[in-house]
Write a structure and sequence with these properties.
Length: 194
């Protein structure tokens, strides 16, 4: 994640997300906290967005299909963080095709950086929060996942070791142990995993 030390240092500031390091560096001249993903707009899913958990995130997409796709991808990722980020997508007006925040800043060249920042924050304040609700998994699907886990793994505790989770039939459990009921009684504690 680009400019990570600043993101961690200013934990209460809103964060602007742009596509590309050039845009991030130029926008940062306004004194705003800004970042971008590594490896370009098509690789948003290859970046650890964890530092944005629970933060206010404003995405400034480029004015093209790829820019809007990037904004949606980042929105989906940071909305699933724990806690989820509060996301706004601000499409800057007056951008040419394939334009970005640098082009927008060029149209503001007669204003002071403080005036441009105030205008940007005013636009952000008037932009609605994206509410991407994560759909909870249906109970039946959740129970199926738990059953599949329990069919493959067993929780046990050896007297000299902490609680362990091991695949059924693994050498760690012993060559003869292929099912839970085959475990030596002194190993099984009946403790549950939380």
């Amino acid at each position: 994640m680009f400019r990570l030390p600043e993101l961690l240092e200013k934990a209460s500031d809103r964060i602007f997300v742009v596509e590309g390091e050039k845009c991030a560096c130029v926008l940062a001249t306004l004194g705003v906290l800004v970042t971008t993903s590594a490896h370009g707009g098509k690789s948003a899913d290859k970046t650890d967005w964890g530092p944005l958990a629970g933060r206010e995130v404003i995405i400034l997409p480029d004015n093209d299909g790829e820019g809007r796709c990037y904004a949606q991808t980042v929105t989906g990722i940071v909305s699933r963080l724990s806690p989820p980020a509060m996301v706004k997508i601000l499409e800057l007006s007056g951008l040419p095709e394939k334009g970005d925040c640098v082009d927008w800043l060029d149209t503001c060249d007669v204003q002071t950086p403080e005036d441009i920042r105030a205008e940007l924050f005013n636009l952000v304040d008037r932009t609605e929060v994206i509410s991407q609700k994560i759909q909870p998994r249906p109970l039946a699907q959740l129970l199926d996942s738990i059953c599949a886990f329990l069919q493959r793994y067993v929780v046990f505790q050896h007297p000299e070791q902490p609680i362990a989770i091991a695949p059924l039939g693994s050498s760690y459990m012993g060559a003869r142990c292929a099912r839970v009921h085959c475990l030596p009684a002194r190993w099984f504690t009946g403790k549950t995993v939380r």
